[in-house]
Amino acid sequence: MKVTVENKKGLNKDVKVFIDKETMNSYMDEKYEEIKGSVNLKGFRPGKVPKEILKRQFGKAVFGEVLDKVLKETSTKALEEKKIKPAGQPKLDLKTYGEDKDLEYVLSVTELPKVEIKSLENIKFDQYTVKIDDSETDKRIKEIAKNQPNFKEVGPDTKAKKGDLVSLDYKATVDGKEFKGNEGKNTQLTLGKDLFLKGFDEQLIGVKKGDEKVVDAILPENFPEKELVNKKAKFNCKILSVKQSEEVKIDDDFAKNLGAKDLKDLKTLISKQINDEYKNSLDQLSKNQILKEIEKIKVDEVPENLVEEEVKVLSQGMSEEEVKKNKKNFEEKAKIRIKAGLILNEFGEKNKINVTEQEVQAEVQKQLRMMPGQEKMVMDFYQKNPSALASLRGTVYEEKILNLIKEKGNANKKEISKVEAEKILKEAHKRDHDHGEEKKVTKKKSAITTAKEKKPTTKKAKSKPASKKTKKVSKK
Hints:
It contains twelve helices and twelve strands. The chain is α+β, with helices and mostly antiparallel strands. The chain has three domains: 2-111 and 455-459, 2-Layer Sandwich (Alpha-Beta Plaits), CATH 3.30.70; 118-135 and 260-445, Trigger factor, C-terminal domain (Trigger factor, domain 2, Orthogonal Bundle), CATH 1.10.3120.10; 149-246, Chitinase A, domain 3, CATH 3.10.50. The strands form three sheets. It has a five-stranded mixed sheet with strand order 1-2-4-3-12. Helix 6 packs across helix 7 (320-350), helix 8 (357-370) packs across helix 10 (386-408) and helix 9 packs across helix 10 (386-408).
């Protein structure tokens, strides 16, 4: 195989591949030997059909399969030999081919530019840790205690007031008639929350244990008995008990009820919980700083074909007029995203970063936890949309790269208070909102990651090849 690079125009080049007919004939002979044992022709024993008979009978089909195989193998080797990494789909143009002929073809390819990544190992960014004051932890614990009221039954003469827990049995009628589901036993209502039927519990303010009270309420739109929807019902209520909330005592027992060892352990856990609430957002700010620094790294030329693809992504769902109006802006954004993608991908390859199937599935599970009750819908979406799963893989890949850059980079470590953290995040949110910035370079699968998986397309040759089954050639 002879490989030469011609017509070098920036990142665009033609890779000419020549394979002599002797080599092509050896591939053909191998294929004939392979099929000989499985061919059954009248008058010949299995495995004994002469090659000339096979050529007359199956020559075109055999040549088509051999050509397909040779193109796949040699196109990959040719690019590797010349150390060319294609950006997008190389185009394959057959020049000379045929049985008992030399094979010559040209790969028209746009090469990924060389990028400098050494400076990434000293990249500067702010890395925040939030110092949580004891007062913040105590405040959070008090909020938890407040949301876990401790109700204690009061004496028979104490009237129920707003915030009390009333237990009751009831039997309801509509127009004096009973209906399905009209009874309730030991129903508990916190007065003032209005969680049963609208206006129901406020009519119980002032009741005492043992009282009987008739409460009027309108049956709601979602009531199971459709003929009774929006009808007024009378509820004959028997008050079983009235309980008032007492302040929960914050002690070791309280902590143990929440799963901690003791109160000291609970404070440690709550402090960490508050810190974690800010950690993810502050970490994202650090990564945004890294991405901004990456934008400053010079890349001599960005492949135009990738820019065109990225513009299509950015302008999805827009009319032709809108796309035309915003084309320049889209192209600038596309170049920034692709340049960052090129640098991140180069860093990932140099550091042998890969994404395992387990990591992709872990990310899917993370999304499932974020959408309780919709797990099946989310899982079905990823199963039916391989491109969405590929996008998720790209996100995990980028995250791993950024985490490694953070490890190797020059972090300016800052310990800040919770108030300072809130201020920093608020300012960052306002800045992003005002400028319409995108926090992630590759919310979808990286343009470069995608490009690596594409196959070269084959141009029509000047005359038709013997096999009509020639497939697209994988550059892998």
